[in-house]
Specification:
The protein contains ten helices and 15 strands. It is of the alpha/beta class. The chain folds into two domains: 165 residues, 2-Layer Sandwich (VC0802-like); 186 residues, Rossmann fold. The longest helix is centred in the middle third of the chain and has 18 residues. The chain binds S-adenosylmethionine (SAM).
Length: 402
């Protein structure tokens, strides 16, 4: 790893996992689990934190490939290449130009095309568009000075750059997925009424401390099935991408050896037991299709109906038949937050959810809800309450001991 070199102080060499606000611990915990399972000889140092939603590691090719193939709680997996403290465009251009002139890493080759995606750039006074322009010019100009041609291409470029601003620096990176890690490829149906982002669903399961080896997982209002699918995928540490989707790093010659074989689940022996219930028939059918595409339909029992009619004993019977205990388990859910229901019906639904969940004494229940009235209607005191937003909906994660 080179955190800076005498040639250009703007050169850095880091793996950055970018996620939602408040997800640093979860992202680091997941990467640590993956690395421990995948490698005997790789040591993962404690990450540096960048704000509320980014963890940084010294760049190691194997770990980067593992992350872009398997890491479910990050929304971007980046290889940080350059950073500059400059807050004005001209000195930023100079720093980036010097860094690309000093570049020795094998990603830079003649004839490549690239695009630049603006990440979080609100800290930069001149704004995101200018930042993209400066990085573009520095890349093309420095490469040209070295006799290398780089060209911008918006659709399907060879390289996907991301530029983001921290409190102190502008950082230019290669996006190793080349797309949001949410675009896993199993949810193609539009996903029911209000689908949860896949990375957020994985985060909710981590925050709820889902242990697939000992616990049954139940989502009583499953929509397109995201929590159930992510639960099954996390249980087996399955690859993030559903074929034919692949991360862009798979096409980069410098990673070719690491992507020569299709990635496989890291915990294939874990056979999770998951139950997903959904009221709406069309959404329920869509969820079945999503589960099949994700390759986890075998692990998920589904039911179409009102959760209030679901008997806890029926769920316990399924658990017992599959060799799982029923003294503990995990209910997770992303209940409706009010778009389609009258306020009184919604509060009634939250209240009924509280009553239903308490028929599982000894279990835990984790919720992500973008409605501040949930807590009072559900009743009791959460063990954990933490801000967690779904897209632009401000919400909370709650964890209850039942
Ligand atoms: C916010 S959505 C859940 C989205 C889901 N997490 C996903 O990622 O697709 C809430 C779901 O609860 C379902 N629902 C509402 N009332 C229900 C009830 N009484 N029983 C079962 N499902 C219900 C709705 O049809 C909707 O699909």
């Amino acid at each position: 790893m080179t955190d800076s070199t005498p040639n250009s102080p703007a050169l850095v060499d880091r793996l950055a996992l970018i996620g939602g606000a408040g997800t640093n611990k979860v992202m680091a915990g997941e990467l640590s689990r993956l690395v421990k399972r995948a490698f005997d000889a790789v040591r993962l140092p404690e990450p540096k934190k960048e704000g509320q939603g980014a963890v940084l590691y010294p760049f190691q090719r194997e770990v980067a490939a593992l992350a872009v193939n398997h890491h479910r709680t990050s929304s971007r997996v980046l290889w940080d290449l350059y950073e500059s403290p400059a807050r004005r465009l001209e000195p930023l251009y100079d720093d980036l130009l010097a860094a690309v002139l000093a570049e020795t890493r094998p990603w830079l080759r003649d004839g490549l095309t690239f695009s630049i995606h603006p990440g979080a750039t609100h800290e930069f006074p001149a704004g995101g568009r200018q930042l993209v322009g400066v990085l573009k010019n520095a890349l093309i100009d420095a490469a040209a000075q070295r006799g290398i041609q780089l060209r911008v291409k918006v659709d399907d470029p060879d390289l996907h750059f991301v530029v983001r601003c921290t409190e102190t620096h502008t950082v230019a990176s290669l996006d190793l997925a080349g797309q949001s890690m949410n675009l896993r490829g199993y949810r193609t149906d539009g996903g029911g009424a209000a689908p949860l982002r896949e990375t957020l669903a994985a985060t909710v399961l981590f925050l709820s401390r889902y242990d697939a080896r000992t616990e049954v997982l139940v989502d009583p209002m499953a929509g397109s099935g995201t929590l159930a699918i992510e639960g099954a995928c996390l249980a087996q540490a399955r690859p993030v991408w559903v074929p034919p989707r692949v991360p862009v790093a798979a096409h980069m010659p410098m990673f070719a050896d690491l992507f020569s074989k299709a990635p496989t689940p890291l915990f294939e022996d874990t056979r999770p037991v998951i139950f997903a219930n959904e009221l709406d028939q069309r959404t329920h059918s869509g969820s079945r299709a999503n589960m099949a595409r994700a390759g986890v339909a075998n692990f998920i029992e589904t039911n179409c109906g009102d959760f209030r009619q679901l008997s806890p004993d029926a769920i316990r019977r399924i658990a017992t038949a599959r060799g799982y205990g029923t003294e503990s388990g995990l209910i997770v859910c992303n209940p409706p937050y009010g778009e389609r229901l009258a306020p009184s019906a919604l509060l009634g639904l939250y209240r009924d959810l509280g009553i239903w969940c308490r028929r599982f004494p000894g279990w835990r229940a984790g919720f992500i809800v973008a409605n501040p009235e949930f807590e009072v209607a559900f009743g009791g005191l959460p063990r954990i309450k933490k801000p967690l937003s779904n897209a632009n909906l401000r919400g909370y994660f709650y964890l209850y001991d039942l």
